[in-house]
Amino acid sequence: MRTGEKVVKMLLNGLLVVWSSWLLAQSPAPSGAGADPAWNEIKGEKLLALRLKGDPARGAEAFEICQGCHKSGATGSISGVYPRLAGQHATVLIEQIVDIRSSRRSNPKMKPFAHEQIVSPQEIADIAAYLQALPIPPNLGKGPGTALARGKELYARDCATCHGDRGEGNGEKFFPLVAGQHYKYLLRESRLIRDGERGNANPDMVKVIKSYTDEDLEAVADYMAGLAPP
């Protein structure tokens, strides 16, 4: 890319960030946990985006603005602030983007970029198709490795039915791929779900882990982060 094109692109991205922040200020406050008692209700924009055929090439172009946080290759951050999106099921990605957009899942940092004036349902489908097709880098954000036996025991008992024996998830049922996800991200989201602070959490999962101690969550997150992605 020529220097002039780079400058124009940087200016456009900067304007988009400013515009997105303004849109966030105009949006209603997040409704919080329990705003919609029906988990993953498939209707409206979610249904539309799921029905549309995503184009990975268009998705790669649309994802460029997302790389500032989610990084090139959608690897996220070891700090757990941003998840690894590469290789995630397209259905799961569509669900989460639409839920953030509607404030069903509170994510103030991402909501401006999920706004309807920023991405259309077709672009959501395109981005999801692109991310699902990306290769998953190994050894990202592993945990301390000190409680793997306990984590394996809890995972086999409580998690494998939905997330799969190898953490592969189930796209048709909207269960995310968890194998090889950043340890700190897994731990943070598990705590939010256990404590009833993630509005679009699967109620079945809330029931399963509500009795987990912090040590239990750390052990399971440690185990999942160490699983080899499919």
- The dominant shape is globular
> Which structural class do you get from the secondary structure elements?
mainly alpha
Task: Outline the biggest β-sheet.
Answer: none
Averaging pLDDT over every residue, what do you get?
87
CATH architecture descriptor text of the largest domain? Orthogonal Bundle
Q: Write down the CATH class of the largest domain.
A: Mainly Alpha
End-to-end separation: 34 Å
Rg (CA only): 18 Å
Tally of separate domains: 2
Order of H and E elements? HHHHHHHHHH
Helix content: 40-55%
How large is the count of helical segments?
10
Q: Enumerate the spans where pLDDT stays under 50 for 5 or more consecutive residues.
A: 1-37
From the 3D structure, determine the CATH topology of the largest domain: Cytochrome Bc1 Complex, Chain D, domain 2
Fourth CATH level, the homologous superfamily of the largest domain: Cytochrome c-like domain
Instruction: Work out the number of β strands.
Output: 0
What share of the residues does DSSP label as strand, in percent? under 5%
Oligomer: single chain
